[in-house]
Amino acid sequence: MRSAYSVDTVRNAERELMARLPEGALMQRAAAGLAAACADVLGRVYGSRVVLLVGSGDNGGDALYAGARLARRGAGVTAVLLAPERTHAAGLAALRRAGGRVVRAGRGAGDGRAAAGDQGGVAGRASGGGRPGGEGRAGGGGGDVDVEGLVERADLVVDGIVGIGGKDGLRPEAVPLAAAAGRSRGAVVAVDLPSGVDPGTGEVRGVAVRADLTVTFGTHKPGLLIDPAREYAGSVRLVDIGLELPAEPELEALQHADVARLLPVPRAESDKYRRGVVGIAAGSARYPGAAVLAVSGALRGGAGAVRYVGPAGDAVIARFPETLVSDRGPKHAGRVQAWVVGPGAGDDAATVGEVLAADVPVLVDADGLRLADAEAVRSRRAPTLLTPHAGEAAALLGVERREVEEGRLAAVRELAARYGATVLLKGSTTLVADSGGGAVRVNATGTSWLATAGSGDVLSGLAGSLLAAGLSAVDAGSVGAYVHGLAGRLAADGAPVGAHDVAAAIPEAWRNVLA
Length: 515
Ligand SMILES: NC(=O)C1=CN([C@@H]2O[C@H](COP(=O)(O)OP(=O)(O)OC[C@H]3O[C@@H](n4cnc5c(N)ncnc54)[C@H](O)[C@@H]3O)[C@@H](O)[C@H]2O)[C@@H](O)CC1
Ligand SMILES: Nc1ncnc2c1ncn2[C@@H]1O[C@H](COP(=O)(O)OP(=O)(O)O)[C@@H](O)[C@H]1O
Ligand SMILES: [K+]
Prior knowledge:
This protein is an alpha/beta fold.
């Protein structure tokens, strides 16, 4: 399981650990891990050109110390200071001692100019620990330096502008540097988080640094796992700095081994009923395909049998003859261990109501979300799993879609609390939240090729099948999203696919997880 902790939790853990360690020890651990990652990215450190973007906090301190380590190994290191008077003084001194060069970022946002700094080696100008603000003009004088050009021509850009202390997007003076990093021919390594993203929520307001690699310390932060910020982080490397964290994280992401433990596997004593029967109440005269796709997911989801009720029985049977089709309503269709209701349901509110009245786990998707009576959902005793995409979630919350897309974590939590249900918010990073609070599951196995009509129907069938097989709503949702995402990847393999291709790839994804 990969986990992420909130900024407050990280700060508390850091404080406790720092109290037990010699001053600066924690930052040295971080810097050592960062420098090692940078060296891996560079391949050859000696002779390489490294530019550090240094903000006013400890994030900049990490970058400076890591830069000092690289300078000692023969890299040409230049630190660009965004706030020379408030730069981490001891880190700056360490860089200078190692022969690093220091320049200051242009004062006028966007002018990209900087006054040249002294050429390094002036030990002790900013001596002592902490941040005394005694650096004065970090770039001691002489000539103009084209800072943006430096960044663009670097072999490696280290983004130490801001880390967990960041909020409200990048400040204007940092924006031209982030843009130059985006144009750089070299790799961009972000320190702890890509600067400009919200560490705790994954929101990105305005410009943020786009990294190839993010080296994060102690634990993942929510912003590294949730889009849109996740996309800015590139690949993420976790450096252990010895933090002791509470048992329950803010976010958790299942890994192959976790999913393998949760996937239902039939045993010798299993029969089709013991494996669980999933009922699919989906499709309409107008949207028979949604029924077929939901059934296609359900048949590959671990239940022993799939019952279909609704007006698309002929289409379902034609494609999947193994389906148990009924033209009576859900109440009279025979026993099931879980229901899926809503894909392609049109305006059939009666069926949604009937399913919600059943005393078994129910997954509500698509049209079903619009048709479900909120009070009927809240008063259910058996588990309920709602699976909206951002647009459906926005409609349920009565907000703009953009608001959900930008603040996915808050939206999924709010929905789960309001409906007293488990909620799976679909998207490039799918989130699953339980009504009782606790860690939110995040899934990132998907691919943007999954943004194709009907792929959500496949997911609802698949997750419903896992519910019928006995998984809890949180497990069914998160395992379903994991396998569905992987199936999407395997099916697409870099090319467009249809939802039925995704369903057909579920067995391969399942085998991949169990291998
Ligand atoms: N506290 C610790 O023990 C450790 C902290 N570490 C590093 O320290 C970082 C946190 O340091 P800080 O608490 O000093 O905070 P940061 O360095 O993340 O940011 C705070 C500084 O950035 C400026 N700032 C805030 N928002 C900004 C924005 N939007 N644009 C530009 N500048 C902005 C603020 O003026 C403030 O001076 C972590 O992310 C990590 O990199 C690591 O060294 C590991 C140990
Ligand atoms: N950009 C993306 N990256 C990864 N997965 C995505 C992306 N966009 C959508 N998906 C996934 O594709 C599926 C689409 O579901 P949905 O929006 O309900 O489509 P439909 O209603 O057409 O079936 C969901 O599982 C969602 O998580
Ligand atoms: K950063």
